[in-house]
């Protein structure tokens, strides 16, 4: 490796030394010389000197180098590593990285660094074999032979010029360059040569050291000389004993007058051409003694010849080795091929013309250099002159490359006439070339200063042209239908059959793609196979290779292909199409006239009619028309008579297991509904114990609704997988999608559908008979319970009913463009009489069930607030507790939302059956909206129900998302429709957002009043009344009323509210109102800013006259008057406002009036405010229907507080609540609780005392509240009442003991606070605590039923008699009183 690197350094150094100077005067300067460019790589022109630094080849290399550098202008690199091995040159030109490595030349296809190698011998078998090997490395070859160098390379017997000259100049001249002069019979040539015995034998190899020459037998065969040849050892018999050095020819073997002839050896073993020399000597009687010089490279052989010059020697020419003695060949007869072929070497050895070999890349990179090398011819005389000149220079400067270059330069200077024709004219292009414009970088068709010649690139051919300047060539594009892959082409190859070239300038013809063919040559296109047909291979060359492509099928008798319908698999070619799993293909058989002979034959083939089956298991994949076991008919939609459907898609013979759907339905009708009715009875009789049943029933109902939604999702066009598919299939019972083939006539879907529609009326009839039978039993059931049970069923099963009813309308499009019912694919929609009948029945079912149910629920929900306001309506509302009782009171409307959601879920599968993607999308939106509404409203009474509903809805949504990848959305119209909807949504959303923002801005900018009315009142005199006013107004209309206890957080803002944020000021006129400073400011502010004022005269209020108004300031202190002035209101403003208010139309209200009358007064105020009739007053509840009684003192504010409590408790409990004003209202009451409001003076109220006694007599539980004004009496008070010393107007003195006991029992109950004049939030919390005293709604129902059904016991009768007796006997002993009290407590405890 180190030696190779050193050699490369020496070569580079020599090259640099030469490059310092130029040879020719017109030489192109070094800086203007260019490299070769190939694939973006720049490199000098590389020369591989195969013989290394030897003058005989180095001198021609130098000539080529000088001309390429100085005339053509290329940079040149000469690699002189050659050792004479031709194979190394071939591998170097091929781009191999290690050309000298015989085991691995590293030929990787990289661009070569060597482009030219000169004087190569190709006739040698080894050289020819390597040349062919390198050529086969690449299509088209890698090397190019440019022809002879010009001189002949010849080997033979030579003689020095001096010896030859002495022979010619002797007295008996001999022409020693002629073989005939050496005939020993006629001539004595030995006188001119050295005696062979005088030559130092140490310079010669012993004969025994000569290696066996395979040509030795030729000598014996040609000469018959057995003496000079050792046949056994195939070796010459040398004279001189075992240490002999010379092989003597026969003609001098006896006299020893032999001429010395020296030859060399190869590697010290092989003698060079000994047989040829000795054959010539024997045949032509030449007295030669052959000696072989020692091997020491060529120096020992040269030294021997140069020492003993008068000798003959075997060598080749031209050569620089013996240039000093100017050797001349001894001429023999011309080469005789036949003799040499037969091993007779008497004639001259055949000479060889060394060749110029270049890389085939040279033509593309430097075509002018290639042409010049091709023209470069050197004669032997020219070469000898150059070598002689170089040798003389080498003696002065021992640098082979420098000497060769100088010798070549000298020859070039003196022989311009020889080498000038070698230089190609710049624009005179040869065959394989074309004119190329260097500036434009393209081939051209006319000459110019920038035009040179360049080899035609692939895709072009060279066309010779003649112009005014002579012959040249241009590179033209290959026409369409032809191509050329090689460079320097003179023609383009026509495309063969099965190929084409669609453009000009193609480097290759492309094979016809699959589905095309070409039967002609020279084509620029391929013909397409008929529609639906293709070829199985590329390059089809006739139409018969077209076959049906995959996805198409062969139509027998037509010799055409038809596209494979959806639901079928078509393997192509002539194979029969198959139906896919889940599809059923109606077999088609046609009669065809075979070849027009009149012979008709039935053939299978299209067009096929494909139906989509309900389930892939019912229609297995395979031959057309194939059904699962036991199935028949269109789309395998029916079971064979006597068979029933199975879960695996097949049908089996009817048996006990086949009747399970019917049995389940019967169990539901006969067993489940009576159980539900019995549960309703149980719940009405033991509500507290049945609270857990109520909770479980709500959860169970939610689960049932969820399962129905799952059934709806299962009916979507989704490819469900097991085990989810098996689970969803079991939900078919909810939508009554059962198989009745073992009970009803098979394939009679109309009858099945009629049975499904009439199933619920049958259920109603059965339960009605059960209810009627229980009417005469000991435990009768109310009609309300009957209605609630069926209402609960209808609401819970609304989705299932909808799914079952719309099933005939769920028509799915099939691949054959026919619509069939999704659940009964054997029924064609809209066209068959059967389906038309089903549509009529479905329309009737929709009206009878979903539409009627939803309309009824809408009506009930709309009437709910009215019934809640009305006492009579409460009773009606209890009948529909199935709709309202499950939800919080303020979310009573959620039942309508839930039913609408359930109905929508049931309609989606049928309404969007043709758009599977929309089915999933809309279903997801509906479930998501329901989820959002449920979260926002939190509607269920029980928190556990809210959480359960939330979890079920989220689960449905997650299931829908997970199932969406299984959706069948292969239809393009579905995708287009979904894309349009998505685009609409994307457009609508920002538009809606923009309008919302605009609405908010407009609402902000538009001046409007925040409050519809401002209640101006005296808190002590009308605080509770104003709260009642606001409650009544909110009950009838949606309006915002300002009440200071709710709204006021800053006293200074109250006048800004009156001035700017109030539409009307309602002045609630009570005795002290006009004397209140703040009320005066409110009235004055409203009058001053022209805010309408509506006076409300309470009780028997009379407005003061003008004189009283003029002295109104006397009611205020000086400080109060200053305060009035500080708010910008003068006394005159107040007086003016009072006087104006006194003239206004007023509304009267007396707090002793009934609830209807007081509500009517409030509505009159609202009618004045809105200038229209607001609403009709709702009737008040009847006392006998009330569940809760409210008892108050007959005082104005106490009565208003009682009405407030009555309204709020009734709304909270959804139970009839009545304000008791007299004991007579308690007759035949069924109330369970009495709610007593303890207020100031209530114990001195005779009406209250009598009412309390009636409550105790009716055994009604009591809950007490305290409005804050009540003060608990002392024990002395009870004594005075018992003894009759405390006079209560309207109460007889003999009733004192009973009243005392009643008061003591009343006040022993813990009273809850109630503040009617407080804020609404405080009041609602107080009412909530009060209602908790009553227990749950179930507790109230339990008490009510127990009270109705309980027969008074003897102890109860004795207790009442004792109470009556005590009331008549005022002198009863205290002990008796105590016993009565204990009995009352015991009775109350029993009730609790």
UniProtKB/TrEMBL annotation:
Membrane-spanning segments: 659-682, 689-710, 753-773, 785-806, 838-860, 892-912, 918-938, 950-969, 975-1001
Feature: compositional bias, Basic and acidic residues: 1353-1367, 1375-1392
Top-rank lineage group of the source organism: Eukaryota
Cleavable signal peptide: 1-21
Region described as Disordered: 1345-1392
Keyword Transmembrane: yes
Keywords, comma-separated and alphabetical: Membrane, Signal, Transmembrane, Transmembrane helix
Domain Tyrosine-protein kinase ephrin type A/B receptor-like residues, every copy: 498-546
Name the record gives this protein: TIR domain-containing protein
Organism: Cladocopium goreaui
Presence of keyword Magnesium: no
InterPro entries: Growth_fac_rcpt_cys_sf (IPR009030), Toll_tir_struct_dom_sf (IPR035897), Tyr-kin_ephrin_A/B_rcpt-like (IPR011641)
């Amino acid at each position: 490796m180190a030696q190779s690197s050193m050699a490369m350094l020496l070569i580079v150094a020599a090259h640099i030394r030469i490059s310092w100077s130029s040879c020719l005067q017109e030489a192109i300067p070094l800086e203007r010389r260019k490299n070769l460019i190939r694939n973006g790589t720049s490199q000098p022109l590389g020369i591989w000197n195969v013989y290394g630094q030897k003058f005989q080849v180095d001198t021609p290399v130098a000539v080529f180098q000088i001309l390429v550098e100085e005339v053509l202008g290329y940079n040149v690199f000469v690699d002189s590593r050659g050792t004479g091995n031709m194979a190394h040159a071939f591998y170097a030109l091929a781009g191999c990285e290690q050309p000298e490595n015989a085991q691995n030349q590293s030929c990787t296809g990289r661009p070569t660094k060597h482009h030219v190698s000169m004087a190569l011998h190709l006739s040698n078998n080894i050289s020819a074999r390597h040349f062919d090997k390198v050529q086969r490395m690449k299509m088209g070859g890698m090397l190019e032979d440019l022809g002879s160098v010009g001189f002949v390379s010849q080997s033979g017997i030579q003689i020095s010029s001096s010896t030859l000259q002495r022979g010619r100049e002797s007295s008996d001249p001999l022409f020693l360059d002629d073989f005939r002069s050496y005939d020993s019979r006629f001539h004595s040539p030995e006188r001119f040569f050295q005696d062979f015995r005088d030559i130092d034998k140490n310079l010669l190899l012993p004969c025994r050291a000569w290696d066996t020459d395979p040509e030795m037998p030729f000598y014996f065969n040609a000469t018959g000389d057995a003496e000079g040849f050792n046949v056994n050892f195939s070796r010459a018999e040398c004279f001189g004993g075992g240490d002999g050095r010379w092989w003597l020819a026969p003609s001098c073997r006896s006299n020893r007058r032999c001429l010395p002839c020296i030859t060399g050896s190869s590697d010290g073993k092989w003698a060079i051409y000994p047989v040829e020399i000795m054959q010539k000597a024997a045949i032509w009687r030449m007295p030669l003694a052959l000696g072989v010089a020692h091997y020491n490279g060529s120096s020992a052989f040269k030294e021997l010849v140069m020492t003993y010059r008068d000798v003959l020697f075997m060598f080749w020419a031209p050569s620089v080795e013996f240039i000093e003695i100017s050797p001349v060949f001894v001429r023999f007869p011309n080469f005789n091929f036949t003799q040499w072929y037969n091993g007779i070497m008497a004639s001259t050895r055949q000479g060889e013309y060394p060749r110029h070999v270049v890389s085939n890349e040279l033509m593309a990179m430097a075509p002018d250099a290639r042409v010049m090398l091709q023209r470069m011819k050197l004669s032997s005389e020219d070469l000898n002159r150059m070598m002689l000149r170089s040798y003389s220079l080498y003696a002065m400067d021992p640098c082979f490359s420098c000497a060769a270059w100088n010798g070549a330069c000298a020859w070039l200077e003196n022989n311009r006439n020889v080498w000038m024709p070698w230089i190609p004219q710049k624009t005179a292009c040869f065959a394989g070339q074309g004119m190329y414009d260097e500036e434009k970088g393209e081939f051209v068709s006319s000459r110019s200063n920038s035009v040179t010649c360049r080899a035609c690139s692939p895709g072009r051919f060279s066309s010779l042209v003649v112009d005014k300047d002579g012959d040249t060539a241009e590179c033209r594009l290959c026409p369409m239908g032809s191509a050329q892959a090689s460079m320097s082409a003179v023609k383009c190859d026509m495309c063969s059959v099965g190929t084409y070239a669609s453009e000009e300038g193609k480097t290759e013809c492309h094979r016809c793609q699959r589905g095309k063919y070409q039967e002609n040559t020279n084509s620029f296109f391929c013909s397409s196979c008929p529609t639906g047909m293709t070829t199985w291979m590329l390059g089809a060359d006739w139409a018969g290779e077209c076959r049906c492509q995959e996805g198409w099928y062969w139509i027998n008798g037509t010799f055409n292909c038809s596209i494979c319908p959806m639901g079928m698999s078509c393997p192509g070619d002539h194979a029969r199409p198959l139906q896919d799993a889940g599809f059923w293909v109606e077999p088609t058989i046609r009669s065809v006239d075979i070849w027009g002979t009149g012979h008709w034959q039935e053939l299978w083939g299209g067009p096929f009619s494909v139906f989509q089956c309900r389930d892939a298991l019912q229609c297995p994949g395979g031959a057309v028309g194939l059904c699962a076991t036991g199935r028949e008919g269109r789309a395998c939609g029916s079971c064979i008579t006597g068979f029933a459907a199975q879960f695996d898609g097949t049908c089996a013979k009817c048996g006990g297991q086949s009747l399970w759907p019917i049995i389940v339905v019967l169990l539901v009708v006969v067993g489940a509904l009576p159980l539900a009715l019995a549960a309703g009875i149980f719940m009405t009789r033991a509500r507290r114990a049945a609270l857990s049943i109520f909770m479980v029933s709500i959860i169970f109902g939610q689960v049932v609704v969820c399962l129905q939604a799952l059934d709806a999702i299962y009916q979507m066009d989704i490819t469900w997988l097991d085990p989810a598919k098996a689970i969803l299939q079991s939900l078919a019972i909810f939508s009554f999608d059962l198989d009745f083939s073992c009970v009803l006539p098979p394939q009679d879907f109309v009858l099945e559908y009629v049975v499904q529609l009439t199933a619920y009326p049958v259920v109603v009839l059965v339960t009605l008979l059960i209810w009627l039978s229980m009417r005469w039993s000991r435990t009768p059931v109310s009609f309300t319970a009957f209605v609630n049970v069926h209402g609960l069923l209808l609401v819970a099963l609304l989705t299932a009913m909808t799914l079952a009813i719309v099933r005939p309308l769920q028509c799915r499009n099939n691949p054959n463009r026919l619509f069939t019912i999704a659940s009964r694919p054997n029924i064609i929609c809209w066209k068959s009489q059967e389906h038309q009948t089903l549509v009529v029945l479905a329309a009737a079912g929709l009206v009878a069930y979903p539409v009627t149910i939803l309309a009824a629920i809408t009506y009930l929900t709309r009437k709910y607030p009215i019934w809640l306001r009305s006492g009579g309506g409460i009773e009606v509302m209890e009948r529909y507790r199935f709709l309202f009782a499950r939800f919080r009171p303020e979310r009573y409307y959620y039942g309508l939302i839930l039913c609408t959601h359930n109905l929508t879920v049931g309609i989606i599968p049928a309404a969007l059956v043709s758009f599977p993607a929309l089915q999933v999308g809309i279903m997801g939106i509906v479930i998501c909206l329901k989820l959002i509404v449920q979260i926002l409203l939190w509607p269920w009474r029980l928190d556990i129900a809210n959480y359960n509903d939330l979890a079920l809805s989220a689960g449905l949504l997650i299931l829908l998302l997970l199932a969406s990848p299984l959706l069948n959305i292969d239809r393009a119209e579905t995708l287009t429709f979904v894309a349009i909807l998505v685009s609409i949504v994307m457009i609508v959303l920002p538009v809606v957002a923009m309008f919302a923002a605009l609405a908010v801005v407009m609402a902000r900018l538009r001046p409007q009043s925040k409050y519809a009315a401002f209640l101006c009142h005296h808190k002590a005199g009308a605080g509770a009344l104003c709260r009642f006013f606001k409650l009544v107004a909110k009950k009838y209309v949606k309006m915002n009323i300002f009440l200071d206890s709710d709204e006021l957080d800053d006293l200074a803002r109250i006048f800004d509210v009156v001035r700017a944020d109030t539409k009307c000021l309602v002045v609630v006129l009570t005795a002290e109102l006009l004397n209140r400073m703040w009320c005066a400011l409110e009235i004055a502010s409203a009058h001053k800013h022209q805010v309408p004022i509506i006076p409300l005269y309470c009780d028997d209020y009379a407005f003061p006259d003008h004189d009283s108004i003029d002295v109104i300031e006397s009611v205020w202190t000086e400080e109060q008057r200053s305060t009035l002035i500080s708010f910008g209101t003068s006394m005159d403003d107040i007086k003016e406002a009072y006087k104006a208010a006194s003239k206004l139309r007023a509304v009267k209200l007396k707090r002793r009036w009934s609830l209807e009358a007081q509500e009517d007064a409030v509505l009159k105020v609202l009618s004045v405010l809105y200038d229209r009739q607001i609403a009709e007053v709702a009737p008040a509840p009847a006392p006998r229907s009330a569940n809760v009684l409210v008892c108050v003192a007959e005082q104005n504010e106490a009565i208003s507080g009682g009405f407030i409590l009555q309204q709020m408790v009734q709304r909270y409990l959804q139970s009839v609540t009545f304000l008791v004003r007299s004991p007579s209202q308690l007759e035949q009451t069924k109330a369970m609780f009495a709610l007593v409001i303890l207020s100031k003076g209530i114990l001195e109220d005779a009406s209250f005392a009598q009412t309390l006694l009636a409550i105790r007599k009716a055994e009604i539980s009591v809950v007490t509240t305290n409005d804050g004004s009540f003060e608990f009496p002392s024990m002395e008070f009870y004594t005075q009442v018992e003894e009759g010393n405390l006079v209560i107007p309207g109460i007889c003195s003999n009733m004192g003991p009973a009243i005392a006991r009643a008061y003591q029992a009343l006040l022993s109950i813990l009273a809850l606070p109630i503040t009617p004049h407080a804020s609404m939030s405080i009041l609602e919390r107080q009412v909530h605590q009060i209602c908790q005293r009553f227990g749950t709604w179930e507790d109230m129902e339990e008490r009510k039923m127990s009270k109705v059904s309980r027969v008074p016991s003897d102890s109860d009768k004795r207790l009442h008699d004792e109470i009556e007796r005590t009331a008549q006997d005022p002198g009863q002993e205290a002990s008796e009183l105590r016993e009565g009290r204990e009995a009352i407590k015991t009775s109350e405890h029993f009730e609790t």
